[in-house]
Amino acid sequence: MISLDDFILDLFKSNWHGRQSESLELAKEQLHKNLTDQVNGYWSGHTAYYIMTHGGFLVDSKRKRVGNAGLAEGKKLTALGQMFMDSMNTKCDDKDAEKLKQSNHDALINNIIENTGGEI
């Protein structure tokens, strides 16, 4: 059985020309961006759309605008697409938490340096 990560990278290696086909992280970031754009009513290029629909992440349908909210009806994530997006959102939350932790650490160090005249 192939892992989801291997499947995504294989999709990009087979269909995409660029850095995203060489790196799992870049491929996943690209897929996340394209899926987000599609469910929010924005356009994606042919290759990106092919990867999303033929990869089983997105249900193909005609786009129908909903009011002035910028939302679109019709483009829906599959169960696989939702699972992928959930995993990426969790990962993004973890990255944000790590950035905050590093930022707090840096601020603490700078505060110590300022309060000790640069001598620790």
Structure description:
Strand 2 and strand 3 form a beta hairpin. Helices cover 62% and strands 8% of the residues. It has a two-stranded antiparallel ribbon with strand order 1-4. A two-stranded antiparallel ribbon has the order 2-3. The longest helix has 37 residues, at 79-115. It has one domain (4-115). The radius of gyration is 20 Å and the shape is globular. It is mostly helical. The protein is built from four helices and four strands; from the N terminus they run H-H-H-E-E-E-E-H. The model has no long low-confidence stretch (mean pLDDT 80). Helix 2 packs across helix 3 and helix 2 crosses helix 4 (79-115).
Tell me the number of structural domains: 1
- Please tally the β strands and state the result: 4
Q: List low-pLDDT spans.
A: none
The class by helix and strand makeup works out as mainly alpha
Strand order of the largest sheet: 1-4
Mean pLDDT: 80
Helix coverage percent of residues? Answer: 55-70%
Structural key phrases:
120 residues; mainly alpha; two-stranded antiparallel sheet; 4 strands; 62% helix; globular
Describe the SSE topology.
Layout lengths: L3 H12 L8 H16 L6 H9 L3 E2 L4 E3 L4 E3 L2 E2 L1 H37 L5
Brief rundown of the structure:
The chain is mainly alpha-helical and 120 residues long. The protein has one domain (4-115).
